[in-house]
UniProtKB/TrEMBL annotation, chain A:
The keyword Acyltransferase applies. GO terms for molecular function: [acyl-carrier-protein] S-malonyltransferase activity. Gene3D superfamilies: Malonyl-CoA ACP transacylase, ACP-binding, Malonyl-Coenzyme A Acyl Carrier Protein, domain 2. The keyword Transcription regulation does not apply. It holds the Pfam family Acyl_transf_1. This is Malonyl CoA-acyl carrier protein transacylase. One of its GO terms (cellular component) is cytosol. InterPro entries: Ac_transferase_dom_sf, Acyl_transferase_dom, Acyl_Trfase/lysoPLipase, Mal-CoA-ACP_Trans/PKS_FabD, Malonyl_CoA-ACP_transAc, Malonyl_transacylase_ACP-bd. It catalyses: holo-[ACP] + malonyl-CoA = malonyl-[ACP] + CoA. Residues 5-305 form the Malonyl-CoA:ACP transacylase (MAT) domain.
TrEMBL record, chain B:
Keywords: Acyltransferase, Transferase. Pfam families: Mal_decarbox_Al. InterPro entries: MadA, NagB/RpiA_transferase-like. This is Malonate decarboxylase alpha subunit.
Length: 305, 552
């Protein structure tokens, strides 16, 4: 049994639509996105278009759902689904909680509003080599000094993503360095995701989701905010809506799955960061990423049950 | 008081209740045996809501077939159980709570499920009694946590229901005793039914229901340390410990745990220890699991006796051929007993040595990290000074404070670790994470593993701190700092302070012990690989697959 991992913003790269597995379900999904949004999805991943969070988010949703559908049609059904940030929408669609078209509408809104709210001067960065507790305290101190910066994501015990005003992130980087952080790096994300800066927008997304028909998940879904397994559509709705205002507890979510016995993880495109994290953190885990070798991955997963 | 004034009551309610349950399940039983595929049905009849249920499982042996069966029972029939478990370690152990089959727990260790335990307590799916030490948990089974039902595992049963638990006897007799002799129901999964047992570990009259499991119980090789991974820093620390503690205090009897540090010491006995002329003078009696890294010391005549908590996969044949050293049955196989070995390790040995992830400046240590509830198993039992002890050995007497009128000795409790943990985190910290964890989880007391007042020695790659010689908290902190290297507390200390402690014999550095850093080489290990251990054992040690490295 395998866990599907759906990446969030930061994993995108130019022209990624051209690198997807050649599979009818992928093409069909891209076509559905085209009809639903009225734009050519291939254009979303052009180098210049990726400057827009909205395009990135729509791309990630379409690619995640398309590749998951392809695997499902090849007989690979996941034991659990876990999405990161906008990846939660891909996970929820794959778990049959909402339709792809409904997800496209919500994600389009989500992306546009996020961008509108913070068009420039904000972003996200990663600190390596300090734990969550240390970074949390460091940011609390920074906020007391008037900075706008929050923990956005716990990737692993010593890899913490922060979010906020660019200048505050720079400040946090310099303090982190003094405290012994090994590496600090900007992420390719232009908005301060997973922070209270998006509380208002989260409410609006929730209102939008409440008008949509949601079903109970066919596959248990890992919550971003609580690192719990969710089997109830109401709770999944809240997680989809409010994950932009709270840190993603990715590492806890993965640990929870591991404790439940999950040992095979597959990251859907684009990228392979979450697969790599899983194999770094857990010694006896097999973590793969689906690049363009869908046939061999499907065969492999079928063989290993 | 006259006879008439005494209210009439039944004195056999427990017996009657048991009889009734057994009658309800009678149609599923052929003698004591229930069919493999009817076990869940049997559990639904034999276990009632709110029962106290002991599910056998520790860090080695697991009653895995019964735990899966329990997770499958109908929650409308069986619910709100109070589980008592040495170890919460398998996914379905937690599923039992998630489904509502159980809601209360008392346990000792939950390392492999520590995040989910923490989540489920937060979510109210699990109410925690206490995180116990092994001996407290076993003790409570006879006092106020007496089980209604015990679910246990054995290797074999015969037609009458006698059990063979062999090398992995572990805590089975303790659990069964607490249950069977107070009218509880004992249900056992066996790997196979045989005509004749190699020996009887548990008599049939203590057992009520037997099921032949669809696969053998889970058994982990937890105490196997591949010598290939022992580092030269660990060898240096091992040499210091041998000279500066074992030799200095003439340590005769001891416990070693799971670490690579102590594996290094075991492999230094036949080489470095021999060169110091210590064979027959130290380390003769052990309360320990049958670590494969003990083989070279056994083979070269260092070790007189080893009593074991449990077995270790791959060591069966070797142990059977070394009955002078191990406790074995007439059939030749090991007899382990976790309760008795823990008790021996607590009360009867000179020295406990262990490792930790964090130590505060007063010497308190804990392996607890934030957001996890893991427990410590047996380390706190062995890692403390049992103050009532009175049999005097040279090591114990060496810890005496001669200024006291009623002089008495002390157990040697040694903490041994490198000053920096993986990920560049100093092991020494002003405040243990355990303090915050206690607050977050509403625990009555912080989950400290070993209390600073009990720690007599601290060994790091820098040197040894003889904490038992310190006479105040402040001096204890200084002594810790003197071996804390370049961690923040270590850097606070001046050379002058170190020199004072050194001249008072409170700390010793490698030079003081006649050890050169350049001597700490891997070639000093009696075995440098699992293959070497096999050779030492005359081919009797048969390591599990994951430790075979023919391809590397």
């Amino acid at each position: 049994m395998v866990v599907f991992l759906f990446p969030g913003q930061g994993s995108q790269f130019p022209d990624m639509f051209y690198t997807l597995p050649n599979h009818p379900k992928v093409e069909e999904t891209i076509e559905r996105a085209n009809i639903c949004v009225g734009e050519n999805p291939y254009d979303w991943s052009k180098h210049s278009a990726l400057q827009s969070s909205r395009n990135v988010q729509l791309s990630l949703l379409t690619i995640g759902v398309g590749c998951a559908q392809a695997l499902l049609s090849e007989g690979i059904s996941p034991q659990f689904v876990a999405g990161h940030s906008v990846g939660t929408f891909s996970a929820a669609v794959t778990a049959n909680v909402l339709s792809f078209e409904d997800a496209l509408q919500v994600v389009k809104y989500r992306g546009e509003k996020m961008e509108e709210a913070y068009p420039y001067g904000y972003g996200m960065g990663v600190i390596q080599g300090l734990d969550n507790y240390t970074v949390d305290h460091l940011l609390q101190d920074a906020r007391k000094e008037g900075h706008t910066v929050y923990i956005a994501n716990e990737n692993s015990e010593t890899q913490i993503v922060i979010s906020g005003c660019s200048k505050s992130i720079e400040h946090a980087f310099s303090i982190a360095s003094e405290k012994g952080a090994k590496k600090m790096q900007w992420l390719d994300v232009k908005v301060p995701s997973h922070s209270p800066l998006f509380s208002e927008l989260a409410e609006k997304i929730d209102q939008k989701l409440q008008t949509i028909n949601l079903s109970a998940p066919k596959i248990p879904y890992v919550s971003n905010r609580s690192a719990r397994l969710l089997r109830d559509s109401e709770k999944i709705r809240e997680d989809l809506a409010f994950n932009i205002e709270a840190p993603v507890r990715w590492h806890s979510g993965m640990t929870m799955l591991y404790e439940r016995g999950a040992r095979q993880f597959l990251q859907l495109p684009p990228g392979r960061i979450y697969a790599e994290l899983a194999s770094q953190v857990f010694e006896d885990v097999r973590a793969l990423s689906l690049t363009n070798n869908l046939d061999s991955i499907a065969k492999f997963l079928r063989r290993s049950g | 008081m006259t006879q008439a004034s005494k209210a009439k009551r039944s004195w056999t309610t427990r017996r009657d209740a048991k009889r009734k349950r057994m009658q309800q399940a009678d149609h599923l039983l052929d003698g004591k045996y229930v069919e493999t595929n009817q076990v869940t049905q049997a559990l639904e009849m034999l276990i009632h809501p709110k029962d106290r249920v002991v599910l056998e499982g520790n860090n080695q042996k697991q009653a895995s077939f019964l735990s899966e069966a329990l997770a499958d029972v109908d929650v409308d029939t069986v619910h709100d159980l109070h589980m008592i478990m040495s170890s919460l370690s398998r996914p379905e152990h937690l599923d039992i709570f998630e489904k509502g089959i159980a809601n209360q727990v008392d346990f000792s260790f939950s390392g492999p499920q520590s995040l989910r335990v923490s989540q489920m307590i937060e979510d109210g799916q699990m109410q925690m009694g206490n995180i116990h030490t092994y001996l407290e948990l076993y003790g409570r089974l006879f006092i106020d946590l007496i089980p209604n039902v015990a679910l246990i595992a054995a290797d074999q049963a015969d037609a009458a229901g006698n059990l063979y638990t062999g090398a992995n006897t572990e805590e089975t007799p303790t659990i069964v005793e607490a249950t069977a002799f107070r009218e509880g129901i004992v249900i056992v999964q066996v790997n196979e039914r045989v005509d004749e047992l190699p020996r009887v570990d548990i008599p049939a009259s203590w057992i009520d229901v037997i099921v032949v499991a669809n696969q053998p119980y889970q058994l982990e090789a937890l105490f196997t340390r591949n010598p290939r991974h022992i580092t030269e820093i660990q060898i240096l620390m091992g040499m210091m410990t041998l000279r500066g503690i074992y030799e200095k205090h003439q340590v005769q009897s001891l416990n070693h745990g799971i670490g690579f540090n102590t594996a290094a010491i075991e492999l230094l006995l036949p080489t470095y220890g021999e060169s110091l002329g210590l064979r027959g003078k130290i380390c003769q009696h052990w309360a320990a699991n049958p670590h494969p890294t003990l083989i070279p010391a056994i083979e070269s005549g260092w070790i007189d006796s080893i009593h074991c908590f449990g077995g270790e996969r791959g060591m069966e044949k070797y142990i059977a051929e070394r009955p002078d050293v191990f406790f074995v049955g007439r059939d030749g196989s090991l007899r382990s007993n976790r309760t008795l070995c823990q008790m021996a390790g607590q009360y009867a040995v000179d020295l406990f040595i262990g490792s930790t992830l964090q130590m505060d400046y007063a010497g308190n240590s804990s392996t607890v990290t934030r957001g996890r509830l893991a427990g410590f198993g047996g380390a706190p039992n062995m890692g403390h000074d049992p103050k009532g002890r009175r049999h005097s050995t040279p090591a114990w007497l060496d810890m005496m404070n001669p200024d006291e009128t009623l002089v008495r000795g002390k157990k040697l409790v040694v903490q041994m670790m490198e000053t920096y943990q993986q990920g560049n985190t100093p092991v020494f910290t002003e405040r243990l994470d355990a303090v915050d964890v206690a607050k977050e989880s509403n625990m009555d007391t912080p989950p400290v593993m070993i209390y600073g007042e009990d720690v007599t020695h601290l060994v790091t790659e820098e040197g040894i701190a003889y904490l038992y010689k310190t006479d105040s908290i402040a001096e204890r902190k200084e002594a810790i700092a003197a071996v804390a290297g370049v961690t923040p507390i270590g850097q606070e200390q001046s050379l002058k302070q170190k020199e004072r402690l050194r001249s008072n014999g409170i700390v010793a550095y490698p030079n003081d012990l006649g050890i050169r850093h350049s001597d700490a080489k891997r070639s000093l290990l009696a075995a440098q690989s699992v293959e070497d251990l096999i050779t030492w054992s005359d081919g009797l040690y048969d390591p599990p697959e994951q430790f075979r490295s023919y391809w590397s």
